[in-house]
Design goal:
Radius of gyration: 23 Å
Strand content: 5-15%
Largest sheet: 7 strands, mixed
Oligomer: single chain
Shape: globular
Distance between the termini: 6 Å
Strand order of the largest sheet: 1-9-8-5-4-2-3
Bound molecules: pyridoxal-5'-phosphate
Structural class: alpha/beta
Helix content: 25-40%
Number of strands: 12
Number of helices: 12
């Protein structure tokens, strides 16, 4: 490769592909959202736990097709509520994928139970269902599956295991809000009869996140979804201090008395946030469609780079991705540098790349508690996760990206990968 000014990398003094940094994820807010929030503030009756909360919960339950939806302050709180509502505690084990955001497994530690990590599939970044049975013991109580990148994890295989061993299935759907999976079909390869179910319907408990980088936002926020009325009641209680009768019922009864029969928290969402959520939910399907279109453009743009990289995940018929994030896997054997160098070079070109995520057990806190409790969190326990971690980069993807943004990303990746190619 010759080193003229066009292909010299920005980190070596060349001209960057873009002038300003392109973020990897970003919320979409318009006048409808702003009006919805102003409305709550103007009415000034309830700022928290008012009519918008119930309406947001009802709308979300209807959207997903499930019976109960409980709004919470964030998905981390939602995961804590989910695990706590299942009465999981000290001495229990919960299975969780090696690669996810730390919150997916921290919720297990919150209740004093042990996270047991399972390696990921080669072709997705999701938990490998075929490796779950090997780690099940008589202490295993639940599986937390995570829909990493927005592609639902292999529900059909995981549900079978849950039935066989009587385990609770919790779905961390922070990345897959608004997507669905194929439940039944007479023929996978034509569309004669296909029956889809929304994420949030089919697991015992599903948790959504509405953090600003997620598929829709309430600033901070989350939702727990279930078809089980007992679990729904417990979660509502845990969300609000463990108090049995909420203030609305007390008012109705004209009574001051309430009892606290469970140790709960304040994990409530405000009415202001719920108003934003109601407004955002209306546009969620359109945003998922746009995310898929952007991913298609990336896939096409990267076709000629297949020697050096492949996109994650493969688009799947049963588990179609909503592309919460767009991840490429670098074929490092074809490149003369490591992922971190490519990462640095892309940042230099003003592309706001990211990495999702380091295997959870490699974090220093997990290393420490692993040693303290004699839990095997040693390097090497999930080799595919550790290898993939060194190969992945998340590229910018959000619904308001414009065509030039997408082309800039493709140009920058092409420039950087060609520069470090072992071929050219
Ligand atoms: C964002 C995220 C969470 C936590 O969501 P918050 O709403 O920020 O608490 C949990 N799990 C995964 C996989 C996430 O990406």
């Amino acid at each position: 490769m010759n080193f003229n000014n066009n292909n010299r990398l920005a980190i070596f003094g060349g001209k960057p592909v873009r002038k300003c940094m392109l973020q990897y994820g970003k919320q979409t807010i318009d006048h409808r959202d702003i009006e919805a929030i102003s409305e709550v503030l103007k009415e000034n009756n309830f700022l928290t736990t008012g009519p918008c909360i119930s309406r947001f919960e009802e709308n979300m339950a209807k959207f997903v097709g499930c019976k109960y939806a409980i709004a919470v302050s964030n998905a981390t709180a939602g995961l804590h509520c989910a695990v706590a509502a299942c009465n999981i505690g000290p001495g229990d084990e919960v299975i969780v994928p090696a690669i996810s955001f730390v919150a997916s497994s921290n919720c297990i530690l919150y209740v004093g139970a042990k996270p047991v990590f399972v390696d990921i599939e080669e072709n997705t970044l999701n938990i490998d269902a075929s490796k779950i049975e090997a780690v099940i013991t008589d202490k295993t109580r639940a599986i937390i599956m995570v829909d990493l990148t927005g592609q639902p994890a292999d529900y059909h295989a995981i549900r079978k295991i849950c039935v066989k061993y009587n385990l609770i299935l919790i779905q961390d759907a922070a990345h897959s809000v608004g997507t669905d999976i194929l439940m039944e079909s007479n023929n996978l390869y034509n569309n004669e009869y296909c029956f889809f179910r929304k994420v949030g319907y089919y697991s015992d408990l599903t948790v959504f996140s509405f953090h600003p980088v997620k598929n829709m936002t309430t600033g901070e926020g989350g939702m727990v979804l279930t078809n089980n009325s007992e679990l729904a009641d417990k979660i509502r209680k845990i969300r609000s201090h463990g108090i049995t009768i909420d203030y609305k019922e007390r008012e109705k009864k004209g009574n001051h008395y309430y009892d606290m029969d469970t140790l709960g928290f304040n994990y409530r969402m405000t009415d202001i946030q719920a108003a934003l959520g109601i407004s955002q939910l209306k546009r969620l399907p359109q945003w998922i469609k746009t995310r898929r279109e952007i991913a298609d453009q990336y896939n096409k743009g990267f076709e000629k780079l297949f020697k050096y990289l492949e996109p994650f995940p493969y688009q799947d018929i049963i588990y179609p991705s909503g592309y919460h994030i767009y991840v490429i896997r670098l074929k490092l054997e074809k490149l003369s540098c490591d992922r971190d160098q490519i990462f640095k070079a892309l940042r230099g070109e003003m592309i706001g790349v990211n990495v999702h995520y380091m295997p959870i057990y490699l974090h220093s806190y997990y290393q420490k508690i692993g040693k303290q409790n004699n839990w095997n969190y040693n390097k090497g326990i999930c080799p595919i996760a550790e290898q993939r971690y060194n190969e992945i980069i998340t590229l910018p993807l959000f619904p308001t990206m414009i065509g030039d943004d997408i082309l800039d990303v493709i140009d920058a990746v092409t420039k950087v990968v060609k520069f470090y190619s072992k071929y050219d």
